Amino acid sequence: MILAMYSIFVFIFIGYVAKILRLVGNKQSGILLGFLLNFALPAQIFNGTYHAEIDIAFLFMCCIALLCNICAAMILLLIGKLFHIHKDNIIVLCLMGMLGNTLYLGLPIIKGALGEDYANQVVVYDQFVTGIPFAFLAPIILSLGGKGTFSLRAVMIRLFKSPLFLSLICGFAFRLIPFEIPQDLFVPLQSLAQTATPVALFAIGVQLELKGILDWKLTSLLLTAKMILAPLIMFCFVYFVIGGFTNQWRMALLEVAMPPLVSGVVLAIKAKLNGRLALNSVAFGLLISFITIPAWLFCIENI
Questions:
Q1: How far apart are CA 57 and CA 201, in angstroms?
Q2: pLDDT of 59 higher than 90
Q3: Which residues cross the membrane (predicted)?
Q4: What are the residue ranges spanned by the domains of the chain?
Q5: What's the pLDDT at 33?
Q6: CB-CB contact of 222 with 58 (8 Å)
Q7: CA atoms within 13 A on the CB side of 204
Q8: Burial of 225 by CB count in 10 Å (0-12 exposed, 13-18 middle, 19+ buried)?
């Protein structure tokens, strides 16, 4: 896992340096994100969904992980109400506290910690626990920020226009075919999918902003809930209810412990909420994760 985290750091650092030296501008960054969202990630999701081992136990694990994230968000909501934190800040706290960087950061970390066998499951996990909830939350957050009204129809249209969701559906549909597709046909798709992680990490580095720490108390509160409290809830559930950690539950706990989702920053800014708080949570969450993720892995491997 150390090698995986080193690779993550290098890709993010290269992106950050490219931004500082102005080697990459908004135009190039937009092209990269377009390639990532419309080609590389859909290829990764389709390939992962088709090849992943998905059963009732896996779906149950995803539900528990999502509930742990929701619990952390509810605790942040309660604290916000008790201490009379501004509504815009509470929305950002709950949004960023619930959604984690389960794919861009989670995939290489899980590969390094648990091996290649769990990479496909990470892709499916990300869609169930992060991607689909984000698609439902985005219109709600925008409506709370005064950018329109929420409607279920708008959510469904947004969902079925998403290349990521459509690739998930196609992956499940192809699993229903009564014969196995030859692996050779997946080679170009897998090559395209392999570009997703480095491009995503590079894009994170380009978006990274380390100037100033505004709302450091709120940032600390958010990261404590997202990266310590949520995985602690899952740790207690697995230890006392399940009775111990399998590799699949280790994967779920590490994913729950990931820092906040990068896309949440874009949503917070678009909804005219506290974008600086969202950005700080991502930037400093990435840095802190190099300490907290190995610490969580040590805990679950030595109980």
A1: 31
A2: yes
A3: 6-24, 31-50, 56-78, 90-110, 122-144, 156-177, 220-242, 277-298
A4: 1-198+214-302
A5: 79
A6: no
A7: 29
A8: buried
Best-predicted range by mean pLDDT among 177-191, 218-232, 276-290?
Answer: 218-232
User: What tokens were used for 74?
Assistant: 């509810």
Q: What's the pLDDT at 302?
A: 82
Q: Which fold has domain 1-198+214-302?
A: Na+/H+ antiporter like fold (1.20.1530)
- Nearest CA among 163, 137, 153 for reference residue 42: 163
User: How would residue 140 be classed by pLDDT, with cut points 50, 70 and 90?
Assistant: confident
pLDDT at 119 over 90: no
The DSSP code sequence of the chain is -HHHHHHHHHHHHHHHHHHHTT-S-HHHHHHHHHHIIIIIHHHHHHHHHHHS---HHHHHHHHHHHHHHHHHHHHHHHHHHHTT--HHHHHHHHHHHH-B-TTTTHHHHHHHHH-GGGHHHHHHHHIIIIIHHHHHHHHHHHHHTTS----HHHHHHHHHH-HHHHHHHHHHHHHTSSSPPPGGGGHHHHHHHTTHHHHHHHHHHHH---S--TTHHHHHHHHHIIIIIHHHHHHHHIIIII-S--HHHHHHHHHHTSPBPTHHHHHHHHTTS-HHHHHHHHHHHHHHHHHHHHHHHHHHH--
Q: What is the pLDDT of residues 269-288, one digit of tens each?
A: 888 888 889 888 988 998 89
Count CB neighbours of 276 within 10 A. 19
**Residue 212 pLDDT greater than 60, yes or no:** no
At residue 222, what is the residue type? L
- Average pLDDT estimate for 246-261: 95
